[in-house]
Amino acid sequence: MRGSSTWLARYAKLVAACTVLLIAAGGMVTSTGSGLSVPDWPTTYGWNMFTFPLKHWVGGIRYEHSHRLIASTVGFLTIVLAIWTWRVEPRAWVRKLAFAALGAVILQGLLGGITVLFFLPPAISIAHAGLAQIFFCLTITLALVTSRGWKSSETPVDDPLLRRVAATTTALVYIQILLGATMRHNDAGLAIPDFPLAFGHLLPPVWNARIAIHFAHRAGALLVSLGAIATAAHVLRHHRNRRELSRPALLLLFFLAVQVTLGAFVIWSGKNPLINTAHVVNGALVLATSLVLSLRSFRAGFEPATVAVTRPAPPLGQLQGARP
Amino acid sequence: MVRVTRLLACVALFAACAACGGSDGSKSAEPSSPKAAPDAKKVDTATAATITGKVMLDGTAPANPVIKMSSDPTCTSANSGEVHAESYVVDKGAVQNVFVYIKDGLGNKYLFDTPTDAVTLDQKGCHYIPHVLGIRVGQPLDIVNSDSTMHNVHGMPETNREFNFGQPVPGMKQAVAFTAPEVMIPFKCDVHAWMHAYIGVVNHPYFAVTGSGGTFELKSVPPGTYTVEAWHEKLGRQEQSVTLGDKDSKEITFTFKAPAVAQ
């Protein structure tokens, strides 16, 4: 059972890695404006999605069709993950989490189809982008809680302040990603065309809905930066010797620096599709890192996995002796 | 779990409905005639007038950006040399591809037959031909794929119904029609991001697209006072008021100012 559990953890990591690839493919679809290059769904120009001839993969079709195929693959991998988890995982909440991931990926596929059939309405496209991150977080969580490190007998850190600041940062990152998706699907990515200033000023001298969305994303970046720096500083000051916390804290700072840089280059490059997509993918990595840090800060509150799995039933006499 | 299953079932049903009804908006665009007053009459050609004119650019037109077609070898081989966008077609100050039409003044006093002959929008060499065109409400628009590559045709009106359909096979033709006046309706191919066309839909015959020389002509216009509008995809819109007497012939000129920076 232990060997199977180890392989499950590795498999969950594979699903999470494939989800990063899927997010990248989705980023390329929106960054190149190819979302409607395949007008039908679930078919592709009338073909079965899986038999669409390679010679027709031209222009925007390459991005949209690749995204659909990768999504189908991740969907299949998630079905396997859910069934596997159900069979070998003793913790009920982990089993439910695996099926929540399966539900999320099915819903995500439907949202992707609906947004194509209704010509990319911003609300559905934003929901598609937001649910993608929720699904990614579920795969990250499954990979984490099935890992050997999570189940180790080492006493977890129990720091209420760390829990608060890490969870707040994770929530801020997710809200920031939603703001980014709102900006992207309302064509507001260059509503403020300069950076770091806005039309040459600290605050935009003119306002409309798109400028407001864009500016909110910039302000959100500031809040996320403060949250991430506060979290990392707390970890490095109080739990420097706990590698399960210090490593994601340092990684969070790294991804944050990359993210701000990419955000600047998105503007300076006039929304170059590759830079735009890198910004989307790295944003997901910021979220994942912050989530891992948060979950580990809450580790003390979870049932001890190893005990739950291997604790033998106490002798009958001991139970009877415990009662008055 | 039961609740989750029900929710998923509802979403699946919704998606199935969407799949049945959402993919071919062109079917919704049934021909219709503009509403005319009960005492509306046909235009008396004996007294009708003519508006002629020209569209000019004050300044130098920005350079059209180069189109990179490398994402589709069929498009690359269909075009020789450097290919540019078609936004600014300006020769000696005269602007081509400007849609000029009577915007206001006709009211519902006149009856106009809806033409049954189709206007054609072709996809050839990975370009829309023509780039700008005018059509009547209810008049059929034949959209043709003359390329040996795949195109999707994505009409993005605001008043009429949006549509997006594929034309994967060379020689495919699909007819659409618009139910309401709308100037302009952008068309795009999402497969080939550089492909754009603009269609002006009006409920009368008084429209034209400027050709070489930037000239236009609106014939058989009944006497009266009208607002004439000129639309260009980058330069925007301009209006002029024109008063026509019996058998009058008026000449007007629209002059757009060239943008200071390339768009």
What keyword list fits this structure?
heterodimer, A: 324 residues, mainly alpha, Four Helix Bundle (Hemerythrin (Met), subunit A), 2 domains, 11 helices, disordered C terminus, B: 263 residues, mainly beta, Immunoglobulin-like, 4-stranded antiparallel β-sheet, 2 helices, globular, disordered N terminus
Strand content of chain A: under 5%
Oligomeric state: heterodimer
Tally of discrete structural domains of chain A: 2
Average pLDDT value of chain B? 88
Number of separate structural domains of chain B: 1
The proportion of residues in beta strands of chain B is 35-45%
**Pattern of helices and strands of chain B:** HEHEEEEEEEEEEEEEEEEE
Specify the CATH class of chain B.
Mainly Beta
Helix content of chain B: under 10%
Biggest chain pair contact, residues each? A-B, 28 and 29 residues
Global morphology of chain B:
globular
Mean pLDDT of chain A: 93
Tally of extended strands of chain A? 0
**End-to-end CA span of chain A:** 38 Å
Provide the CATH topology of chain B. Answer: Immunoglobulin-like
First CA to last CA of chain B: what distance?
54 Å
Order of helices and strands of chain A: HHHHHHHHHHH
Instruction: Output the structural class of chain B.
Output: mainly beta
Order of adjacent strands in the largest pleated sheet of chain B:
7-13-12-9-10
